[in-house]
Amino acid sequence: MKAFTTLEGIAVPLDRANVDTDAIIPKQFLRKIERTGFGVHLFHDWRYLDDAGTKENPEFIMNRKEYKGANILLARDNFGCGSSREHAPWALEDYGFRCIIAPSFADIFYNNCFKNGMLPIVLSPNEVEEIFQNSIKNPESKLKIDLQTQEVTLSDGKKFSFSVDPFRKDCLYKGLDDIGLTLIHESKIKTFEDDQKSKLPWLYK
Q1: 1 belongs to a structural domain
Q2: What is the tally of structural domains in the chain?
Q3: Which residues of 34-65 are buried (b: 16+ CB within 10 A; e: fewer)?
Q4: Which residue from 89, 107, 146, 185 could staple onto 116, CB 3.0 to 4.6 Å apart?
């Protein structure tokens, strides 16, 4: 998993509340078992005018040229609600988003973000609104996210502090997913396995 330390980039304001995982990645695109390749289908029904995904909807915010290449997503309340599909953060990360800022998230989606190298930031509705207005009025201005100091900084220097669980922060900062956390103890696991093989050799025949 790619480590998250600091991030600077354009934020795209998705002005919709209760965005569910079926909107993030529709069910017809869930047949793949790999984590990659879902970004092209992100928000498919909103981004495109056709089922094949060849005609962009010019009215959808992410299709505006000033927000192309955005790596921060601004959202409203209860982002990521609905089914527990992990494909939702896969699609967001594959598209290029590393951070999502919203007043609230669905619990399972929130947890899945950390497991996939993305930082979900919860700020107050008023703070989120201020960042929304900044991104709308100055679409090419950049936000800076600093995980170590737990701050979001606007282009004019104004800062917003956010909270994050210390364990999740450490894992994200070091780029450790569940597999990475397990491999930290690789030498101990090998010692245990070697001991088991010597004590119970018939289990390994």
Answers
A1: no
A2: 2
A3: eeeebeebbbbebbbeeeeeeeeeeebbbbee
A4: 89
Q: Express each pLDDT in 95-154 by its tens digit.
A: 999 999 999 999 999 999 999 999 999 999 999 999 999 999 999 899 999 999 999 999
**Gap between the Cα atoms of 46 and 158, Å rounded:** 32
Q: Is the pTM of this model over 0.85?
A: yes
Beta-carbon contacts of residue 66 (< 8 Å; ≥ 6 apart): 10, 139, 140
Which of 30-44, 89-103, 110-124, 183-197 has the weakest average pLDDT?
183-197
CB contact at 8 A, 73 and 10: no
Is residue 40 one of the residues assigned to a domain? yes
Q: The domain spanning residue 169 has which CATH number?
A: 3.20.19.10
Contact of 195 with 24, CB cutoff 8 Å: no
165 φ/ψ angles, rounded to the nearest 5 degrees: -60, 130
- Report how far apart, in Å, the C-alpha atoms of 203 and of each of 4, 193, 197, 198 are: 42, 11, 7, 10
42 domain residue, yes or no: yes
Token pair belonging to 183: 């491999």
